[in-house]
Amino acid sequence: MLSFFLKDRIVAPPGYNRWKVPIASVSIHLCIGSVYAWSIFNPPLTRLHGVAASAADDWTLQQVVWVFTVAIVFLGLSAAVAGKWLERVGPRAVGTVAALCWGGGFLIGGIAIQTHQLWLLYLGYGVIGGCGLGLGYVSPVSTLIRWFPDRRGMAAGLAIMGFGGGAIIGSPLKQSLIERFYVSPTYLGTAEAVKPVTVDGRRFANMDGVQREVIVVSASEVRRMTVQGEAGVYLVGTGDSGIASTFFVLGAGYFLVMMLAALSYRVPAPGWLPPGWTPPTEEEARLKMVTTRHVAINEAMRTRQFYLLWIVLCFNVTAGIGMLGVAKDLMQDLFGTALPTVVTGRFATTFVLMIGVFNMAGRFFWASASDRLGRQRTYTIFFVGGIALYLSIPFIAAAGSRDPAIGWLVLFYGVAMIIFTMYGGGFATIPAYLSDLFGTRFVGGIHGRLLTAWSTAGVLGPLAITVLRERSRKEAIHDLAERSDPVSFAKKFGAEIDQLDSLIQAKTVTIAKLMEIVPTGTPDPTSGLYNSTLFLMAALLGVALVANLLVRPVDPKHHLEV
């Protein structure tokens, strides 16, 4: 029975149409690529108790983004292990295990959400689901490169294109499911009518002689509700954020699609070459920094080139993945205050979807272009262009905050989309870069080892953007509180300013609420929360640029004997 899944059972017969192979690859990557729409989950996961807004006992943005981080870490770790296993058992077996892990990770994650167990969400979606990501990611890459030795860049682009496009389907699907299962919490009335009191930073309302915990949603915060309701007081612990049921549905759906795709995999027979294609001569290959020899997996890890490409991939991914993890929040923070009627929750969801569109398009475009430009020159374009684009965003956001014109939003949108074409292109071009340097025989295993760079970036990117954003947010709240009239502050929050830290901890005080009581003309600091992170990302791209320019052909002493 188990032999049905092994490589010997899926060798393609003579005359097999190789263009059928990308269908299975893209299908699996569309499913696992939905991880790039993680930011759609952030708002409901941080409102499991409050539902309409975050309550004191709800998870923070930093905590839930770490679920995404854990998934990316285990993507890289499992890919590093699976690369060698893939070469032995073939893509069908690996794809089947990927379907079990990815679908099962969602199901366990749904249970974790229902029971409000953050560690179980880390285990389910992060660890088990992350292993599904890694196994599903590597299974098509070496397969397609073997089917398309004449178009390595295009093959890698096809293999990985679906992963970038997973957010195209995932974003609206996740949002619609969340809204479908959403149940509004109990509305008690306006803050003036209910008159909630503050105890240790939390808000409470008297209901039939019993103090019940509540949240107060200000008029400026209504637009961030999953389904917009009224400003006022809501009872904590009522309603349903819709996220647990969404996890259950997605887990079942992704499992079925990935299993069907895994069962349709085929590999070429040994020695197969595309009809009419002749491998390049040694001299032609040398001029393009493309080897005609092969380097074993363990030997590749003894070369300088492997570690230079590790840095290239790690810092390229770090720069983009931090933004991906908070993409919906990022859009609302940068322009939601200046253009509230335009940048709604649905607009921010569409932004995540469009990231997927350009991420996918960039994977195919840049990987195919690298067949002509060369891999090294392609990455140089990524890094030089990326540095300029990341440095421009803080200035665009600041200008949009001062002058709420749609033009600044359009400019930011364009900059972000170009960034994500190059982010996706970096992923899709790296397998071809590896095959150029180390040959095609073991590229799946070498690629798997290199994806540990993705694991590292999965920690660095979200860590940088959440920690630096949180520090900027707290500094901004303290600054706004100092500008506030103490009487207005006490009336608004039911506590004195000297209790500010406990009010922040309980999520009672926010930038949006403070902006309602600070003096007229006080600039809203929300659009600048990401500035320090963006400057750091530009610096990391500079390091990656230097590493890329240092890459040279592998010394022949590392080649396998013919």
Structure description:
The structure is a single chain. The chain is mostly helical and 562 residues long. The protein has one domain (2-272, 282-558): MFS general substrate transporter like domains (Growth Hormone, Chain: A). It is built from 22 helices and five strands. Strands 1-5-4-3-2 form a five-stranded antiparallel β-sheet. Helix 13 packs across helix 14 (345-373). The chain is elongated, with a radius of gyration of 25 Å.
Task: Give a short synopsis of this structure.
With 562 residues, the protein is mainly α.
Describe the protein's topology.
Elements: H1 21-32, H2 42-45, H3 61-89, H4 91-115, H5 118-138, H6 141-147, H7 152-181, E1 187-189, H8 191-194, E2 197-199, E3 202-207, E4 210-217, E5 232-235, H9 243-263, H10 282-287, H11 297-300, H12 304-325, H13 327-335, H14 345-373, H15 375-402, H16 406-438, H17 443-450, H18 452-483, H19 486-493, H20 500-505, H21 511-514, H22 531-549
Helix pairs in contact: 1-7, 1-9, 3-4, 3-5, 3-17, 3-18, 4-5, 4-9, 6-7, 7-9, 7-14, 7-16, 12-16, 12-18, 12-22, 13-14, 14-15, 14-16, 15-16, 15-22, 16-17, 18-22
Q: Order of strands side by side in the largest beta sheet?
A: 1-5-4-3-2
Mean pLDDT across all residues, rounded?
A: 88
Fraction of residues in H or I helices: 55-70%
Rg from Cα: 25 Å
> What structural class is derived from the secondary structure elements?
mainly alpha
What's the CATH class label? Mainly Alpha
Query: For the terminal residues, how far apart are their CA atoms?
Result: 36 Å
| Full CATH superfamily name | MFS general substrate transporter like domains
